[in-house]
Amino acid sequence: MKLKQGQVIRLPIRRIGINGEGVGYYQKQVVFVEEAIPGEYVSARITEVKKKFARGEILRIQKRSSHRISAPCPIYRQCGGCQLQHIDYPMQLRLKRELVEEAFSRYADRTPLPIQETLGMEEPWAYRNKAQLPVQRQGGRIVMGMYSPSSHRLIDMKGCMVQHPETNQILDIARQTLTDLSISIYDEGKHRGAIRNVVVRYGFETKEAQLVLISKEHPIPKEDELQKELVRRLPQLVSLVVNHNPQRTSLIFGEQSRVIWGQETMAEELGGRTYHLSAPAFFQLNPNQTSRLYEKVATAAGLTGKETVVDAYCGTGTIGLWLANQAARVIGMDTVAEAIADAKMNAKANHIDHAEYHVGAAEDLLPQWIAAGFRPDVVVADPPRTGLGEAFIQTLLRTQIPRFVYVSCNPSTLAKDCSVLLKGGYQVRSIQPVDMFPQTSQVESVVVLDWKRDS
């Protein structure tokens, strides 16, 4: 019998879903229940019925998990930024390992898996070095925060518990300055007004901060006054940038950025290396775990100092430069020109002269280089959530690259891509989940794949 909206069912929760919801099965139908924990037995009301699944909300917990706790954040259920604050941290780590395991079992059909325990944090709070928040004017006041799940309702956010305290303070001061100067705020419905988003990045080691104002209007009304006041109120600021985004779009950054005060970049340090970061460039959001993640990548790469390493989807060059002292040559590529400029600057700042960087898609450049006779020993890739491009995968298979280290933030696309690589002749040597985003359902993984020389 097909489930109906409004129907109340009793449901055992078997596992966690990719978005942090509990997953149960009612007469072989998949039901996702927000905030339900594996091992619990709940009474749930069906809120949505789709062809392949249904969604429900908890009415009563009939069997309560011993891992259930009270979420410490007062807006946890409204904000949507975190999904697992109601689960104790050791259980979060266990569930994230199970997410990776489930994805490989479903898509790659390989058991048993060489999967390690999730690498967690000693203190899983205040870890984020960056915030990018939409801004609205509500009832005469400026609101900035996160959109409530499955809605376009902006929830005002102050003192976020997963953001670094300095990031929260900069956001508060930026908001107050916009308020004090009566700066125009973007109205999405009318597509007019200036400030759309506020983006803050803070260096845990350098104590430097970068503030980016995303604006529909160019220049921002009262821009000179705003610049002077922000610089006066924020002594940690080294870079103040305006990004112009005039389009009706959900994308945060537009194509044009302009430094209105200070430097083009801010600096951060990881593992004794200095990284210069421009406004749109990607950099890992959790510096403490990033060092541990990159150490796992270095161990996985198994370099001896003689290898040529490709750092695909390289961003600002962080992974490649981390490996450079153990390699003979590093070559990176990325589609974001500003990120490649940062990578070149970072190589120079760290006195690394055997690393080179190119603007372009890994899916395009690597096949071209291979066709011209280039043969890397190790390829490292940290792609977007959508995973690897088909041309990139086929190049790995055709060239039989000896070792491929895949860093992924999406278990599903990771497992799907690995399935193709496994069928083509690779074998998984190890899978290491890393908790880069505590209190959320996201999990990073480092997977080592070796070419089977006898295949």
TrEMBL record:
The keyword Cell membrane does not apply. InterPro entries: MeTrfase_TrmA_AS, NA-bd_OB-fold, SAM-dependent_MTases_sf, TRAM_dom, U5_MeTrfase_fam. One of its GO terms (biological process) is rRNA base methylation. One of its GO terms (molecular function) is rRNA (uridine-C5-)-methyltransferase activity. Pfam families: TRAM, tRNA_U5-meth_tr. Signal peptide: none annotated. The keyword Lipid metabolism does not apply. Keywords: 4Fe-4S, Iron, Iron-sulfur, Metal-binding, Methyltransferase, S-adenosyl-L-methionine, Transferase. Residues 2-60 form the TRAM domain. S-adenosyl-L-methionine binds at residues 284, 313, 334, 382. Gene3D superfamilies: 2.40.50.1070, Nucleic acid-binding proteins, Vaccinia Virus protein VP39. The active site is at residue 409. PROSITE patterns: SAM_MT_RNA_M5U, TRAM, TRMA_1. PANTHER family: PTHR11061:SF45, RNA M5U METHYLTRANSFERASE. Belongs to the class I-like SAM-binding methyltransferase superfamily. RNA M5U methyltransferase family. This is tRNA (Uracil-5-)-methyltransferase/23S rRNA (Uracil1939-C5)-methyltransferase. It comes from Marininema halotolerans. The lineage of its organism: Bacteria, Bacillati, Bacillota, Bacilli, Bacillales.
